[in-house]
């Protein structure tokens, strides 16, 4: 098995297990623990040492991992990579029980800008975080994941909607209501009781008495896979943006220890990033201030550092090529994409993109450029938010992807591996982070 094949196998396994932002952070924590990183807590004193490897989490859904350079203290510049742990999905409402025609359904809310049509006729499961009360009165939290397909959203047959292929629209309140089971007679199904049973099954000995609240996502149980006649593609849920979390983590594993480096994976990017755990919150800036340990040190750190915002890019779809600028349509398996926007929807500038073009040439990785059509609206990333909040020079980059925000997305099988190589080159770059 080649290095790229091993990488994609690991990527598929990571995404399969990282079914929610909470599970994504849990998976990353396990890998950091195994690599000798020391866990820090925001409410405790830190004793950071040159060469030390550390991480901390916030809300259980965002993570920062960093290494203190042996040869270059953080004040001489940190090489930073950012991604996000959340993906558009369906989330269970607080009072979700819907009983219709003898069926038990779940009320859900759309999280982020989800592409809704692909959610029909999929084998769905449920995962997330529970808050529960123990029999001794103590309040605790735990993660659960049903793993098995326990829900489905059946399509309406075309015989009952002859115009479905021309004009069917989706009402998210009425049309996206997952089906759980068929009720027997006057049977009443208590969703919180169902969660309590699952909690006790996954966490024996938790002494849970009742489930108080939850943050639960539905997800497609179809496993990620390398697909295509020649294995050209990776198909999976949540490629946006767990692919970037994984590539950032893999790059961090190849850090040589000389420079100071950091990986931040924020929650809530898909809904604007304004939260305690989001990029528009204080998590990163507060961490950097503690690393710098003084106001002067923090100013030096931010001035001499660089952030790479890694988030998927829109590959040029062969059936919809006219949706792209003719000179800026990224192709799958032709390399990571520099994302550029004159209106600062992306944070790349000539200085940061110039450095990455140099690093890519040294690493033997091809780069592409993406600029949205001038007559179309442009999306955004944590890049401009981080640049504005922290004041650090920033680059936006990503792997070209099809079907972004669908329940199952598609990327090239070479691109994520190339991005990980490029990010590792960036982490180990010994020079100044900017033009002389």
Automatic annotation (TrEMBL):
EC number(s) for this protein?
3.4.11.-
What NCBIfam families does the database record attribute to this sequence?
Answer: PRK02813.1
**GO molecular function terms noted in the UniProt entry:** aminopeptidase activity; metallopeptidase activity; zinc ion binding
**CDD domains in alphabetical order:** M18_DAP (cd05658)
Source organism of the structure = Pseudohalioglobus sediminis
Q: Which family does it belong to?
A: Belongs to the peptidase M18 family.
Q: Which cofactor does it need?
A: Zn(2+)
Give GO terms for biological process: proteolysis
Q: What is this protein called?
A: M18 family aminopeptidase
- Sorted alphabetically, which InterPro entries does this protein's record hold? Peptidase_M18, Peptidase_M18_dom2
